[in-house]
Design brief:
1 helix; 316 residues; five-stranded mixed sheet; mainly beta
Length: 316
Amino acid sequence: MIRKYAVSSATSRVLALALLLSACNSQDSLSVPGQQDPDRMWSVESNALSLNMLVGETYQLSVTARDMNGNVINPKGTISYRSELPNMVTVDSTGKVTAIQKYDGVRIFSSFTSESVTFTDTINVAVFSDPVSVESVEITTYGLPFNPVVYYKGYGWFSVTIKDNNGFTINGLVYSIKSLDKDVVNATPWYLYGTSAGKTRVAVEVNAFGRKFVDTVDVRVEYPVTASVGLSYTGADPVIAVNGSVTFDNYLFPQRDVQVIFDSNKPAPLLLAGDTVNVLSYRTATVKFTAPGIYRYTVPATNRSSAVIVRENPTF
């Protein structure tokens, strides 16, 4: 999964908003529902992830098609290119990109049409009037829960810093962020998202005036050791690690005590708190789970049926 965007400050830190995820995905290669033929085109990618160019500079863009397994293929079809702002950056029918005017970021769309289906990849181009001496790029993970761990179905944060040959931070350059295994971590311009337990590497890449700079960071995804369940609403089944705990919150209205009754067929050993958990009105009750499995439960007072999923964390 590749994302392209620009550094707007010394250390770019943008809070994650889940609603932006769909907008990010629109920049990726398009997938086609129902297309299962492994030999057909499944995605396209450009030979540059992002570009920083001088006014008058040119770059030859090209497109590679891949099948559903990621292998390079050569399907019959037509390739087209389009600039979002041709008065700032132009691209001709052969993919030749020309920087016209100074501008922070222009999107270039590369499309491959085959068998009446079009796949599109997008890169960002920043144009400068004067050359910038780039010497390094660094990606740093930080924030919650701790560095560099992201919890399953949770978010992690990162910052990117680009410096010149004097060690000063450079602003305005575009760069690309990529997870080397999107099945473990999904990398977006705003955050890292844990998609499954495991370990992978996240890379940042800067193409600046004919030179390429890359930095990487290892990221682990683990199951969390705590989770909470609100008995007043229906949410997703929590997934936690072995020896983790789930807190049941009773903020029902009207106020009343409730019982959380676990399935008698749950995996051994028994819950430490017993088969039935009493949650007093406007109180919480915490249950610890000491073995992997799916622990199903019901809440008769609200007709809620759900489960707690407990899994072993991988060994890194």
